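In the previous lecture we treated proteins in isolation. Real proteins rarely work alone, and many bind small molecules. This record shows how such a complex is specified: first the sequence, then the SMILES for zinc ion.
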Amino acid sequence: MPELPEVETIARDLKASIVGARVAAVWGSGLALHLGRAVDLAGVRRISAGRRILDVRRKGKFLLVDFDGGADAGAGTRTGARARGAATTGPGIVVHLGMSGRLRVEPIDARRAPHTHVAFALDDRRELRFVDPRRFGWLAPGAPVDARPELAGLGPDPLTELDEADLARRLAGVRAPIKAFLLDQKRIAGLGNIYVSEALHRARIHPTTPAERVRSRAKTLLAGIRAALELGIRNRGTTLRDYVDASGVRGNNAASLRVYGRQGEPCPICAETIRRRVDAGRSTFFCPGCQGRGAARTRRAR
Ligand SMILES: [Zn+2]
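The predicted 3D structure, ligand included, written as tokens:
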């Protein structure tokens, strides 16, 4: 499933490619997507048809496409709001890529790939296409798009909004394992299983350590999170199975992963054998040398 670095890669590529283009028409397959939700095509058309694409950006693992609001959506106030770093308030669509969702920009006369569910015809003979064979992804309109319920409850972005003091405050009193804390999008947005494993290894924190016990190491943890995410972005994302960028190219980050998917291999830092454990059906990868034995060791050290 795409995490922050993969969505960021796609958002940057699309931003360079489609900002300024105007949507001429919207086509939909009519098939239901994630959890049987049909795409609100009428709503998508209302927000995008005849409108210019102003921006493509990321919020957590969500991708947002902003449209010119015209006279009816307070477009005149948006530039100022953006400049002050405030939430944008214009119309747009939010896209979640699910497991296998892809956004592609292709010539309008190129045949649409199988499993194309929504296509935005642009005024420059190209089409922005949402393709999703497994249909765990979805897209939805919003005006303002930032007020979509999926976005409203997201925690801060670890690259742009979170600082050490804020992270320490959020860790306080949380008895859940640090891994579960980091996966919870309401606490911090954008992390999934891959980058949580990598961040905890970099920070030398065992995944089962109670979150509140990591509070004094918030600075180290934040540095580990950022290093893992920034490397992922530099490598244009991690492809394990389905992920490709907006040009259909796989990411290069899998070769740079230190622990994720590497059980039985030597740790690149200390050469101990990397282990895999399964909690609630999800794999966790860690190095017993760098990351110790977690809760038990942390308790003894106190
Ligand atoms: Zn190690």
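Summary for your notes: Residues 71-87, 298-302 have pLDDT under 50 and may be disordered. The radius of gyration is 21 Å.
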